[in-house]
Structure formats: structure tokens, C-alpha cells
Amino acid sequence: MTSLSLFATCPPREQRIIHLALRLLEKHLRQPGDAFLSTHMTRDWLRLQMAGLEREVFMVLYLDNQHRLLDNETLFLDTVSHTEVHPREVVKAALRHNAAAVILAHNHPSGETTPSPADKTLTHKLVQALGLVDIRVLDHLITGGREVFSFAEHGLL
User: Fold this and answer.
1) Phi/psi of residue 30, each to 5°?
2) Would you say residue 1 has pLDDT above 50?
3) What is the number of domains present in the chain?
4) What's the whole-number average pLDDT of the chain?
5) Which domain holds residue 126?
6) CATH value at residue 78
7) pTM of the model
8) Distances from the Cα of 52 to the Cαs of 2, 135, 157, in angstroms?
């Protein structure tokens, strides 16, 4: 799923311009190997990736010991209001990427970024499961339109 799909109703020329602009912005905000040291920069990067998505997606950013981006991956994609996330699959993917830490992210297409009780429970399960294999969860961010909620900033990790 690409950001370009959000602009499918635009004329082809505008779609190409938007696609190029997004690629340039992403290049300047976050490159593999760059460190995710600030929630502010992570928020900007996630806004580019998730703003305006019509379906809920769950993404994991895999980081090394210095919090440099190894890779990012959308692991789960579902309906307008719910994504079923399996901790086992998150752990397997983090091990496959040889991650020392992860940042979890998902979106709420409704625009509401307040975490649900299910979001809190899932985050707790993921912190526990990843902790068993010495992978730290640095944050879980929820995007909703232009707003982004950080579990770490609100003391929920």
C-alpha cells in the first residue's frame, strides 16, 4: 500500500507530482541507517506513510542498537476499524530483521488517536513477547490524520 493510492482520484499528472514529492520528503526525513532518536521526527515520517489511509494498518520499524532504521514493514492490514495483530508474527519479523529495538505504529482511519483498551492490551503483550528475546519496544504511535499519539510520551510503556 503506497501513499500514492490516496490520490487515485487526482489526474495522472498530479499523481506523478505527488508521488515524487512524497519520495523526496521521505528521503529527507528518514533513510535506512538513520537514527530514530526523536519522537518528533518519527511522527513526521509516520505522517508521510500513514496519513489518509482508509484502512487500519499495523507497521513495525526495526532498529539496531543505536536506533538506526534497519527496515520498516506493514505487518497487518485489515478493515476500516480493526486490525488483528499477532505477537508471534511481530517477534518472528523482528528476529528476521535482527532488530535490537522496534517502534510500533498503527493508524485509526477515524482520525481519533486516543488508544483503545485493545490498543493498550496489545502494546503490553508485544512489550512482553519482544522482551523475551531482548528486543526493546521504544514506542507505539497511533496516527489519525495529522495527529499522532505516543505511548512513550504518555507513560504507557
Assistant:
1) -160, 125
2) no
3) 1
4) 82
5) 3-150
6) 3.40.140.10
7) 0.77
8) 11, 30, 26
